Amino acid sequence: VIGKALVLDEIINYIQSLQRQVEFLSMKLEAVNSRLNTGIEAFPPKDSYLAVEDKDTQEDL
């Protein structure tokens, strides 16, 4: 019984360690994504340029 309790305790500790690693990596990924999104906002999508050009073309007509 004591041996099983020790094994279960080790398993619980291992799972908690994995959970902390997942939380850490999730925070790290979120930080990277927020930096990428900030960089992407500096460059509007190509479609937005086309929409502006179409609007300008229609106003000229």
Automatic annotation (TrEMBL):
Keywords tagged on the record: Nucleus, Transcription, Transcription regulation
Where is it found, in Gene Ontology cellular component terms? nucleus
Q: Does the keyword RNA-binding apply?
A: no
Question: Where does the chain cross the membrane?
Answer: none
Protein's UniProt keywords contain Transport: no
Localized where? Nucleus
Which InterPro entries does this entry report, sorted A to Z? bHLH_ZIP_TF (IPR024097), HLH_DNA-bd_sf (IPR036638)
Q: Name one GO molecular function term.
A: protein dimerization activity
Q: What is this protein called?
A: Transcription factor BPE
What is the organism field in this record?
Trifolium medium
Its ancestry begins with:
Eukaryota, Viridiplantae, Streptophyta, Embryophyta, Tracheophyta
